[in-house]
Design goal:
heterodimer; A: 397 residues; alpha/beta; Rossmann fold; 32% helix; B: alpha/beta; 12 helices; 12% strand; disordered C terminus; thiamine pyrophosphate (chain A); metal-binding (chain A); plastid (chain A)
Chain lengths: 397, 390
Amino acid sequence: MAAAASSALHAVGAVASAKPRSAAPAVARRRSVRVAAAAKGGPGSSGRGRMVARSAVAAKADEAAAAAGSKSGGHELLLFEALREALIEEMNLDPTVCVIGEDVGHYGGSYKVTKGLAEMFGDLRVLDTPIAENSFTGMGVGAAMKGLRPVVEGMNMGFLLLAYNQISNNCGMLHYTSGGQFKIPIVIRGPGGVGRQLGAEHSQRLESYFQSIPGLQMVACSTPYNAKGLMKAAIRSENPVVLFEHVLLYNLKEKIPDEEYICCLEEAEMVRPGEHVTILTYSRMRYHVMQAAKTLVNKGYDPEVIDIRSLKPFDLHTIGNSIKKTHRVLIVEECMRTGGIGASLRSAIIDNFWDYLDAPIMCLSSQDVPTPYASTLEDATVVQPAQIVAAVEQICQ
Amino acid sequence: MAAAALLRRIPAARAPPTVFVAARSISDSTAALTIETSVPFTSHLVDPPSRDVTTTPAELVTFFRDMSLMRRMEIAADSLYKAKLIRGFCHLYDGQEAVAVGMEAAITRSDSIITAYRDHCIYLARGGDLVSAFSELMGREAGCSRGKGGSMHFYKKDANFYGGHGIVGAQVPLGCGLAFAQKYKKEDTATFALYGDGAANQGQLFEALNISALWKLPAILVCENNHYGMGTAEWRAAKSPAYYKRGDYVPGLKVDGMDVLAVKQACKFAKDHAVANGPIVLEMDTYRYHGHSMSDPGSTYRTRDEISGVRQERDPIERVRKLLLTRDLATAAELKDMEKEIRKQVDDAIAKAKESSMPDTSELFTNVYKKGFGVESFGPDRKELRASLP
């Protein structure tokens, strides 16, 4: 990683690539980077006020892994509150951070992510827009060109399709077509994914639509811990970042550290180390996978579960190390089958790790249908734990 | 007379062209001069500014010079395109120079300008140089966007010129975003978001205008109405071609876009208005001699008589030439010499640009992401070229 040395934040990556992976790590490595306001120390040291690469025990999905290394006990909150905390912290640190979206201000946000922010920061920093996604996303890009750091909220990710031109052509391309003159440090975020009978137009998964846009970075959060960390990292990033949240995950509760921390945008998260098969997943499907993992463990399997988190670019380092160990891959995603994240990931794994595979890569995705309203049909649209169990059994034959 | 003519034929004795020596009869005086615009302004929801524009002889000479330079650059680009040195899309601005020059005269470099793809001359007006313009058009490394943008993507960040956009109308929300940032940072400057009569029918314009009016942003939407959206005349595209009125609740002003002094007056008025009161719409009644782009002959949807008619009656450069001559601020021969020297300037710039090399292959992967991305990326074939993003 050529550029790693230049930034302490990315020293985490350097640590990862320098250390050889042992055959069966007993402890899951969660590499979260803690940042204190001014300190930039080397990796590997612990304690407050220093950059740390931390190892945390995360053997089981229902354990509050995030607080494992926390010195002061941490505090419990819901995922949407974690996002809000991140926003408040960043808006306090940097006066150029502002929030643009529908009903984010006085109403408090349709999923309460921005609740109270308008009272704290005023109408110029928390902007209620009319229903005009194309133009307010464009305005966000224009403001970013001129030095602000807007956080644009799509009330539902699906609505951002109206702003696709702005996201693709302006947001993604301006840094390139201007020969590097302008940077677009914008964050585009919002809930997406299949909810509870919200209907086809409100249950879209746009990861696949945005993934080809050059110049864009994409991350998906899945726990309160990584939601806060990724939001902060996305705001601080100089690149445009699309942060995918999920409608059904907003009320997840977890204990997160009191100290300030950031998650690396390009890094995958080891959820459960294992030996037999690498299961790659993200967002809500992580929970279906962990549920299936319980069944699999009872049946004698030892799956390694990785939440890829970074949808563009893929963390091929973490993923590759896992494949080199288990030699079998299952991708579980909520994206559509055609042209989805899984399709790209499969491609990338074949290109890079073909020699390590003992079985064809299996990919479980949502069906290529508009999400139906009826609950039974909706359940059949997304991947269910039973299918995951069956797939692992098939791969591990 | 003969002696004067003799003097004019010794170019070596003259100082470098950018400064006109006082001994010459071309006026560089900065004495105030008041000139009436060609037609009065028509307004919507606001009192129009006066028809009397204050200027100086020196400024008029600068207008002539700048517009002639732009005209020459565009005509040279035409030849380069036909010689296949410029490829793809090339949208030329000749005929519309007064808008670029008049606007620049009314504002400062702290104000922002954003436009669509007919951007070569705005780039020049904002301080861009000929060599980087031609290099960019020919896809060379020395281009203003390192050869990676092309004709439709000229930018100049240090002069607050935000481009250079290919998708019709998409630059207007960007422009309102720039205005938002100006208000946010309390800069007391304004943004001029230029678009054409074709783009005036885009929904995102009205969305952005609504938001700008609600938030009282210093946004000035300038419709460069050259009466044709590619091949479609304005009366076939817009139910209401009174573009200055289409802001509805937003005030508007209609300006003769071929009269550089009217443009200057209107832009000054608009800037003062926008900084104090919020958005305003300007409609510049202008005309392009070339077709929509180099792929369009420009004569299938309009008559050659119309084009030559406008050239004779309303050409912006000729208007200023007439002003200079009738008021004795310059002689015809001096202006001709200036044009000759501009021609040479442009030819020299083209020669220099032609020498510039094509971008290196590694440039393919630079500027996709901003520095600090920190992750390796793979080349398109995923096997060979591994470019570490810078």
